[in-house]
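#structure-requests
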Amino acid sequence: MKGVKPLILAGIVAASAAVHANDLDKVIDKSSEINKSAAQSQTKIDKIADSMQGRLQQFKTLNKEIDGLAVYNAQLTKQLNNQIEEMESLNLSMDQVSIIERQITPLMLRMIEGLEQFVSLDIPFLADERTKRVTSLKEMMNRADINSSEKFRRVLEAYQVEVDYGRTIEAYTALLNVDDKEREVDFLRIGRLELIYLTRDGKKAGSWNADTKSFEALPDSTISQINKGLRIARKQLAPDMLTLPVHAAE
């Protein structure tokens, strides 16, 4: 009987060891499940973290775009306000242009009338050309296809042509009644100081007398100087001093 107790004790130990081993396996299995679950959870957490990081980066990018749009909108607002101011200024200018246009038309008409009177009272050089210029200006004023600024430019241009006549020397050929006979003559215009003619045969000469409104004969002694003046005006001679009779202005 004494030999039985050790066997029973050994059996109990073996059974206890088996129980413990079984429990340990369960614990290990459970631990593995926990680790696996923890790994899966960590994976989910990592995915969530990556997603959050991406969204955070997207949020920052959107914020930068919003800031940029805010600056852009502010600039557009300034430009829009400036355009509104420009439109108001243009509207005001257009109103003023309409007022000026109504005022400038009568002014141009008076200028053309004054130019016509001036040509008729001036020494009679290039009479046809100057008269046609005035007539053209009158016809222009009745045309609707030419704006006021262009009309005013042409009127000023005509005045400038007349101004230039006063400081130039010119030679041209035209018809003139000499001794009750229409003849072709060479005219020499020296500014507005003197208008002289010389017949093509070089035998008769005369100058315009503003007091009598007619041409008066000049002595034969002046013919050589007149010929010289004609050649200078035609750029056939270099400019030089001329000795010609001049009607003194009163």
